[in-house]
Write a structure and sequence with these properties.
single chain, alpha+beta, about 35% strand, about 220 residues, 12 strands, about 25% helix
Length: about 220
Amino acid sequence: METVEVPVETRQVGNKRDAGRLRRDGILPGVVYGRGTDGVAMQVNGRELRSRVGSLEGSHVLRFKSGADSLDGRLVLIKNVQYHPVTHAVAHIDFYEVDVTRKITVMVGLHFVGRAEGVVHGGVLQPIARELEVECLPMDIPAQIDVDVSSLEIGHALKAGDITLPPDVVNHTPDLTLVSVLAPTVSTLGEEGAEEAAEETAEAAEDQGAESAEQTGE
């Protein structure tokens, strides 16, 4: 996985007024911490951060760029984002410094590809999970996981254990259902289609009844 470079600076911890002044200037206060290390107060330009990671899905390794600052070169993940209770604007960000030699657990976005066989026959594709939790080294985090739904029939589903993950990426919830194909309903078929489906079902039932009668001699 390629890292995304984000310019940051260390920050002097002040009071709420100081933090509010930073936000008004478009600067987001934050903290970076790691395994067995103390947190370091830092700040990042909000617009700069959004332009670099706003369109990304799932977890991505970021590389801090900070000149001669002690933060320069640190590899981190966005751990937590706090929002203002009224405006819902980003108020604070926690970053977690990763060790590239230690496996971590992260969420990776799922992308459903192909057209399910069941959808071709009127069914409805029903995504159940949009992300999958996986374990891997930080630099092996997939940008996304493609899930091929082409073979799915009506009433069938794909579980996490059914898909192929990239090398060195592990999922520990193989029974987790990711996507299924639902049977068509009146709303998806339309009244005419629903009537046709009902007629076909009735005809199939009659044929089956006739076969049973022949076999029993009635």
